[in-house]
Amino acid sequence: MRALRLAAGKLLRQISSASNHSLVWGALIIAALAVGAYLVPAISEFGAEAANPREALQPPSARHPFGTDRSGFDIFVRVFHAPRIDLSIVVLGVGIGAVLGSLLGVLAGFSRRFMGEVSMRLADIVQAFPLLILAIALVSLGGNSLTTVWLVLAFVNVPVFMRLTRSRVLTVREQRYIQASVALGNSTPRLVFRHILPNSLGPAVVQFGVSMGYGILTLAGLAFLGVGVQLPTPEWGSMILGGSNYITTGQWWISLFPGVFLAIAVFAFNLLSEGIEQAREVHAR
Amino acid sequence: MNAEAAIMNARQWLWLIAKRVIFTIPILFGVATATFFLTRLAGGDPAYQIAGPFATDEVIAAVQKQIGTDMPIGDQYAAFLGDILRGDLGTSIFTDRPVISDLADRLPATLTLVILALAFSLVFGLALGSFAAYRRGRAGDKVVRVGSFSALSVPDFWLGLVLLFLFFFRFGIAPGPTGQIALGATAPRDITGSAIFDAAITFDSAAFRAALHQLWLPLMTMVFIFTAPITRLARSAVIESLTSDSILFGRACGLPKRQLWAYATRAALPPVVTFVGILFSVLLSSAVLVEAVFSWGGAAQYAVNAIRQNDFPAVQGFVMAAGVFSVAIFLVVDILYRVIDPRVRL
């Protein structure tokens, strides 16, 4: 815990020492999406899962700013409601994957012996499979539920973070301050968790934003294929799927708006990631 | 180069390639093992899925006997490996044909999309990236940088739908989502399963035009998505090589700026080629979605249908095939890397 607090403190100092537009905007957009997910449904007169067949397939209007879909769902309220599912599942899945992966990466980098090699080869093999295909297969075979989705997101992200952290550990462990702390007689756990871990998390923190963005795209892609989140749950990918049959007959609004919000969310996480990277570079100079 | 040296060189190359291929065998074994245990771990006994939710115990037992899941897991694994060595990926429950021939029929359609998308994205990405590097900090660079960064966030399947709406519904210059060859259009003689390729090798110009007409929209979708990461990587690689000592030396020698730029772009190729290896598996993932949007009828769509129909052997076969393809691409990339950068020892 102390190690994490140290790492977080270091990161915060790095961030606040720079005027960093990417970081600020990325964080602001994500915060806006999260607040909107609770604010907009609360003040809207339409429910996110309230069907109204008499107002089905209506184009955008003052009453329905983003139109309605086949069942008469108000797309505006659903698009804002969606981060409750999209962001929370992806934060949970990628977060667990990142924590587990980074810890394994520290161990693999520190031990360097048999276990290190074996775990890296296992990571190689898991990463040989195209991510979305692996995710589809695992989610559909493991039961089409949200629990499986976040478990799979965690599973596919473990090798990513493990690899990044391990390669950083390999450089950090050769640094003079690590030698110094060995010479001072620190115990191995203290060496690993107090000195190596906080200094090895940088690349993983940068990767987290990228992985979040890709996780959101994966979740939505799965839902688009009918795997994972299903209608009528408000989720961007399944909403795009709901409109896909109407695109060739001209009802563009059903798929367009969820896709725009999906892209904005991914964009925000990419910005955040770039901002963190910039902050680290400024600090390193 | 004299003949003797050429033979030596060829021998070196053969040895090099053989060595890489041998290194690939344990990885392929790992891919097969992972396919078996991952699908089994996630899904449990496929007999329950095959038999359906209302099956009696006798039916399930019969199915288990038929597909061999009544054996201990070790025996099942051995049988699975043995089947793979004989080129047997099981029989699809839905099409009742061997999974391997189902995949062989449909993979060419997927690979057409993936390989053409990769080729075009590489050309555009390298051009845009080295242009941006050359104009670093100026307006052109900013446009490319902002554009490629934003394009990273665009969902491929959504872009496909938007393009369909614009070019099919609004402008009427693209076909609807009707697969590789539209109903009623002149189809080429089916040789490989890739319409455009078959039309090209049979010199069937009418069918070629028909196939091209179907191809350009899904291709454009994927090229738009994959040009972005290649552009970003190419830009930073070219900038790095523009500031290298060799370019500095060239500048000191008074080489024209354009020539220096060409050298820098050439020197930036190795990281881009390495990246292609990683990108390929992302392209396969993307093809799953793009095929679904355009009803492309390739292997990826086959796999999605297999999942909807609980066709366990087909899913397992496709996952396995995708893994093998990624490994094969890594092999090709490794060897290509040596061609591009002869300093590297494999």
Task: List the main descriptive attributes of the protein structure presented here.
heterodimer, A: 285 residues, MetI-like fold, 12 helices, 74% helix, 0% strand, B: mainly alpha, 14 helices
Topology:
The complex is a heterodimer of chains A (285) and B (346).
Chain A: H1 2-16, H2 21-43, H3 75-81, H4 83-111, H5 114-128, H6 131-141, H7 146-172, H8 176-183, H9 188-200, H10 202-224, H11 236-244, H12 253-284
Helix pairs in contact in A: 1-9, 1-12, 2-3, 2-12, 3-12, 4-5, 4-7, 4-9, 4-10, 5-7, 6-7, 7-9, 7-10, 10-11, 10-12, 11-12
Chain B: H1 3-43, H2 46-51, H3 57-67, H4 73-85, H5 99-134, H6 139-151, H7 156-170, H8 195-201, H9 205-242, H10 245-252, H11 257-267, H12 269-294, H13 299-308, H14 312-340
Helix pairs in contact in B: 1-4, 1-14, 5-6, 5-9, 5-12, 6-9, 7-9, 7-12, 8-9, 9-11, 9-12, 12-13, 12-14, 13-14
Structural class of chain A: mainly alpha
CATH topology of chain A: MetI-like fold
Number of domains of chain B: 1
Which ranges of chain B are low-confidence, i.e. pLDDT below 50, for 5 or more consecutive residues? Answer: none
**Sequence stretches where pLDDT stays below 50 over 5 or more residues of chain A:** none
> What summary fits the major beta sheet of chain B?
none
Query: What is the fourth-level CATH superfamily of chain B?
Result: MetI-like
Question: Which two protein chains have the largest interface (Cβ within 8 Å of the partner's Cβ), and how many residues from each?
Answer: A-B, 48 and 52 residues
Protein architecture, described:
The complex is a heterodimer of chains A (about 280) and B (about 350). Chain A has helices at about 1-15, 20-45, 75-80, 85-110, 115-130, 130-140, 145-170, 175-185, 190-200, 200-225, 235-245, 255-285. Chain A has about 280 residues and is mostly helical. Chain A has a single domain, classed as MetI-like (MetI-like fold), CATH 1.10.3720.10. The radius of gyration of chain A is 22 Å and the shape is elongated. Chain B contains 14 helices and no strands. The two termini of chain B are about 25 Å apart. Chain B has a single domain, classed as MetI-like fold, CATH 1.10.3720.10. The longest helix of chain B is centred in the first third of the chain and has 41 residues, at about 5-45. Classes of the chains: A mainly alpha (about 280), B mainly alpha (about 350). The interface between A and B is large, with 48 and 52 residues.
